[in-house]
């Protein structure tokens, strides 16, 4: 990383080993980052660590949709839908409008007629719960509308989940959290039978951190951490694997499409950073969470399913730019994973560690508050109110400054990723002559983003940069030469 980034990391690691904290949050995904932010705002001394990168697992491998959960209306879970719709609105209008943007979703189905009517009938209460008018599709929203049975149109939102997580970590740090990624918890310390700290191991060595309480927000690794607390524990979760494909976007799409298959599964196509994201699979997974990758069979399944409502020339195997897989955390059960509840899990272990996982990206803020409410009484904040402060970058960017220096497409790209902080990247040109050059000629990402990732966004590895701080990987532009160039920038401060 850069000299500045290395200094920040060194200070953070030194503070983690020297200071005693009220709360240690293990897991820097979207939920863990929000737990740290809310706890710091409530006055707690908070440490946040992740064995990999912030948002490096499920939180950057979602379907990129922020939605209310239309399918939950079939089971009359109106409260859950209302809460999700409220969160969607707050994220898109107040908390992160630069990263969460409204997006119409055109609904198709292969289901029987009665099921189609049930879905269509649910659109009115869905819009009513969200206080929304009927969305409209502008002319030319698609190159061509797909064939099939169309049953409605809903208004949802799309996000850059990796950057949303990074913005939340940044907000937590500004509120007082001490954060470090690529730092693994190898053991939990106890005092009088209660968790009192952890042994941490990073690239720089191992050390012990002292704290009064611990939140386990490690997602797919939830049971691994529970095993450190109680070697006799039984598994509390099961995992479901979701695979996504990225395809080149021809023309401009101003809406997403979703198809419900005959067996109840869902396939969707979402316009995202100049590409089309196709997802998802939903199958049981029992392997190492760190080794989850798409298989050729899963990719073929998605292409075949997507061909039912997308043009055949779009969903060819040779057009796939990138594929990735993430893991959902579900409650134990015997039903198929795609039928399982998406509500989050919360438990308190025998040594007092709070474990939280699952749920929806959309509702990560109330999930974080639920975790804090489960803390031991001597640590739990007296008053817990959800923070409505905008995340870093939520203010409008200085478009005049961007467009006076960059072409329109690049200026728009930086505004989408950094919002009001996009102008900060222009300053790197004073120190690095290549800063405003493109990293790869086929993509809009600039070398200034690499320097910024090293200075301000805790980037440690080339993958941290290509997958979560730029769009290089999803565009299929993370060639070996690109990764070597990024690694060279990151190595400058070591």
Defining traits:
nine-stranded mixed β-sheet, 494 residues, eight-stranded mixed β-sheet, FAD/NAD(P)-binding domain, alpha/beta, 3 domains, D-Amino Acid Oxidase, Chain A, domain 2
Distance between the termini: 7 Å
Gross morphology is globular
The value of Rg in angstroms is: 22 Å
Give the CATH superfamily of the largest domain. FAD/NAD(P)-binding domain
| Helical amount | 25-40%
How many helices? The count is 13
Order of helices and strands: HEHEEHEHEHEEEEHEEEEEHEEEHHHHHH
Number of domains: 3
Low-confidence stretches: none
For the record, the CATH class of the largest domain is: Alpha Beta
Structural class: alpha/beta
Assigned CATH architecture of the largest domain: 3-Layer(bba) Sandwich
* CATH-derived topology of the largest domain: FAD/NAD(P)-binding domain
Number of DSSP strands?
A: 17
Average pLDDT taken over every residue: 89
Q: Main beta sheet: strand number and arrangement?
A: 9 strands, mixed
Written account of the structure:
The structure is a single chain. This protein is α/β, with parallel strands linked by helices and 494 residues long. It has three domains: 3-58 and 163-237 and 342-373, FAD/NAD(P)-binding domain (3-Layer(bba) Sandwich), CATH 3.50.50; 100-159 and 238-330, D-Amino Acid Oxidase, Chain A, domain 2; 399-493, no CATH class. It contains 13 helices and 17 strands. It has helices at residues 3-18, 30-41, 78-95, 113-129, 161-174, 222-229, 296-306, 364-373, 399-405, 408-418, 447-456, 462-469, 480-490, and strands at 20-26, 46-49, 65-66, 100-109, 149-159, 178-180, 183-191, 194-202, 205-216, 238-248, 256-260, 266-272, 275-279, 283-285, 322-330, 345-348, 354-357. The strands form two sheets. Strands 3, 4, 5, 10, 11, 12, 13, 14 and 15 form a nine-stranded mixed β-sheet that branches. Strands 1, 2, 6, 7, 8, 9, 16 and 17 form an eight-stranded mixed β-sheet that branches. A hairpin with a 5-residue loop joins strand 11 and strand 12 (266-272). Helix 9 (399-405) crosses helix 10 (408-418) and helix 12 (462-469) packs across helix 13 (480-490). The mean pLDDT is 89.
């Amino acid at each position: 990383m850069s000299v500045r980034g290395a200094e920040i990391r060194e200070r953070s690691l030194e503070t983690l080993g020297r200071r005693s904290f009220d709360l240690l949050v293990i897991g820097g995904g979207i939920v863990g980052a929000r737990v740290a932010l809310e706890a710091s705002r409530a006055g707690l001394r908070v440490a946040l660590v992740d064995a990999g990168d912030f948002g490096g697992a499920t939180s950057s491998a979602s379907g990129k949709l922020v939605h209310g959960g239309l399918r939950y209306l079939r089971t009359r879970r109106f409260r859950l839908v209302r809460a999700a719709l409220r969160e969607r609105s707050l994220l898109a209008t107040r908390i992160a409008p630069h990263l969460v943007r409204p997006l119409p979703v055109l609904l198709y189905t292969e289901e029987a007629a009665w099921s189609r009517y049930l879905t269509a009938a649910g659109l009115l209460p869905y819009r009513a719960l969200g206080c929304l008018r009927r969305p409209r599709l502008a002319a030319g929203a698609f190159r061509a509308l797909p064939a099939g049975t169309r049953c409605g149109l809903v208004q949802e939102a799309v996000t850059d989940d990796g950057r949303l997580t990074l913005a939340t970590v940044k907000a937590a740090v500004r509120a007082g959290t001490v954060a470090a990624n690529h730092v693994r918890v190898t053991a939990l310390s106890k005092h009088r039978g209660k968790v009192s700290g952890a042994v941490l191991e990073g690239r720089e060595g191992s050390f012990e951190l002292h704290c009064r309480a611990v939140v386990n927000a490690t997602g797919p690794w939830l049971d691994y951490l529970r095993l450190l607390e109680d070697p006799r524990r039984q598994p509390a979760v099961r995992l479901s694997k979701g695979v996504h494909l990225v395809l080149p976007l021809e023309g401009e799409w101003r809406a997403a499409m979703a198809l419900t298959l005959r067996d109840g599964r869902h396939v969707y196509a979402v316009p995202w950073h100049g590409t089309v994201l196709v997802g998802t699979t939903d199958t049981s997974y029992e392997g190492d969470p760190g080794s989850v990758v798409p298989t050729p069979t899963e990719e073929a399944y998605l292409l075949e399913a997507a061909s039912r409502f997308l043009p055949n020339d779009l969903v060819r195997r040779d057009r796939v730019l990138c594929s990735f897989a993430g893991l959902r955390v579900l409650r134990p059960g015997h039903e198929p994973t795609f039928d399982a509840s998406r509500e989050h899990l919360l438990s308190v272990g025998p040594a007092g560690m709070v474990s939280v996982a699952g749920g929806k990206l959309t509702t990560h803020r109330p999930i974080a508050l639920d975790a804090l409410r489960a803390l031991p009484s001597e640590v739990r904040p007296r008053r817990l109110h959800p923070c409505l402060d905008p995340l870093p970058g939520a203010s409008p960017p200085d478009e005049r400054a961007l467009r006076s220096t960059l072409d329109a497409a690049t200026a728009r790209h930086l505004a989408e990723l950094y919002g009001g902080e996009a102008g900060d990247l222009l300053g790197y040109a004073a120190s690095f002559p290549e800063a405003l050059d493109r990293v790869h000629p086929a993509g809009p990402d600039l070398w200034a983003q690499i320097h910024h990732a090293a200075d301000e966004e805790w980037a440690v590895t080339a993958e941290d940069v290509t997958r979560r701080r730029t769009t290089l990987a999803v565009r299929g532009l993370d060639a070996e030469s690109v990764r070597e160039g990024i690694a060279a920038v990151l190595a400058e401060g070591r």
